[in-house]
Amino acid sequence: MLTADPSTLTFEGHARAVVRQVQGVLAELLTTLDANPHDPQSISRRTGLNKNLAWKISKIIQTDDPAVALEQMPGDSGIKIFLRCVEQAGAPAPVLEAAQAAIREYDRLIRVHSGDRATLEIMGSELGSAGRQQRDEFHRKMLFQGASYVWGAQAGVILKVGLVGPGAEPGLLDFVSLSALVDFRRFRAGVTWVMAVRRSTNDDGSAMPTSLWEPVDARYAGADCPPLMADFCSQPLPELRRFTDASGANYELVEGPVGNTGTKTVVVGAIQRRIPYYRTPVNEWGEHAAMCDTPAKLLILDVYFHETLTFAIPPEPILYGNLGPAIRCAAHGRDRNRLPLHETLQDLGQGALPVATPEVRRYNDMVRTLFERVGWRPAQFRGFRMKIAYPAIPTALVLRYPLPAAPQDA
To answer: pLDDT, tens digit, for every residue of 25-44?
Structure first.
């Protein structure tokens, strides 16, 4: 039993001690009743517990991850049922008293550090890695449902694809990008949605002087045209409206019907050439970001690098909690906005397509169109993919890599 004042303990130290204490007394209680702590059926037979509660108790005892143990702790009524059952089954009084003391310490952990059990589970997620991705997804799904209601819209998939290849001169690269909202639908009349925003910035968020973007689909080359990739959009074509702000030209999906009858798939594509990639005092990193500003069931970020750009392979995935220049502002400290990311970067390898993903219809055709537009061969590129189910908004998923120094003059 803990003897220190818990208010002087860190949450992590107190929580780990409580979990060890609870695990120990639960295991001892069951073994005194000749029940196997690792076998829920044995626990149920010896104590009379229902199968679900017996499974929870066994899971708490077996796990090496304190986050899982806290997640599986029964509620007040479940704990009372368990203590009553083991008492009726003949558990020795000293062991039963030790179990009651451990439960009181668990209650004190909640009272001192979190205030309620739901908050305790959130805080406890940081104590272990087992099952962390599943826990993250569970909470993000709840956020997705609430955000869909608040914003009045959602998408099936946010898709971002980038091709990074050598430019016309040493130290320059060309970048081809595709952005799509797949199966976007509104839940409230009058909802519009920004679809195409193009920005190039330095590490500190200031604007990077680069060439103008050009559309992938040459049919949309006019100055006021949205850069649609019409062959991959839903029909009739989504209507986009142009507006300008401090960031430049933007295009938004106009108002439309709510629900399934108004579902749209919007795909835009653009090319930017002559982007400098040698390291400078204001640019140490190359980054390709997917801005998660739409409630969506899935985010996919794919970036393909030319085999000669070895400095970019493999990129590092990072999730930031803020959008726009704030995530790049050195004065604020980039990593202050960094969020946990437990999804794994997928190496798609190098070679010819396909590298399709089942959630996006005609994915290979889309990517093949990007390659053909700039005359690059897919076999010379290596792809990397990140998938996040129910991505939190607003966040920014970034694939970054250190930029190389310019070669020294001979």
So the answer is: 999 999 999 999 999 999 99
Decide if 266 contacts 385 (C-beta within 8 A). no
Cβ atoms within 10 A of the Cβ of 88, count?
Answer: 10
Instruction: Look at residue 247 in the predicted model and tell me its pLDDT.
Output: 61
CB atoms within 10 A of CB 388: 25
Higher-confidence residue: 226 or 103? 103
Residue 227: φ, ψ to 5°: -80, 55
3-state DSSP assignment of residue 64: coil
* Cα dihedral 256/257/261/264 (nearest 10): 20
Cα separation, 26 vs 95, whole angstroms? 9
Residue 313 near residue 382, CB atoms below 8 Å: yes
Burial of 240 (0-12, 13-18, 19+ CB in 10 A): buried
- How far, in Å, CA of 208 to CA of 213, rounded? 13
Cα–Cα dist 96/84, whole Å: 10
Contact, 38 vs 61, CB < 8 A? yes
Could you give the 3-state DSSP secondary structure of residue 105?
A: helix
Residues 304 and 271: beta-carbon distance below 8 Å: no
For the stretch 144-163, pLDDT in tens is 999 999 999 999 999 999 99
With cut-offs at 50, 70 and 90, classify the pLDDT of residue 325. very low
Which residues, including other chains, have CB under 8 Å from residue 211's CB and lie 6 or more apart? 272, 273, 274, 275
Pairwise CA distance, residues 227 & 66, whole Å: 50
Question: How does DSSP assign 189-233, residue by residue?
Answer: TT--EEEEE---B-TTSPBP--PPPEESSGGG-STT---B-GGGS
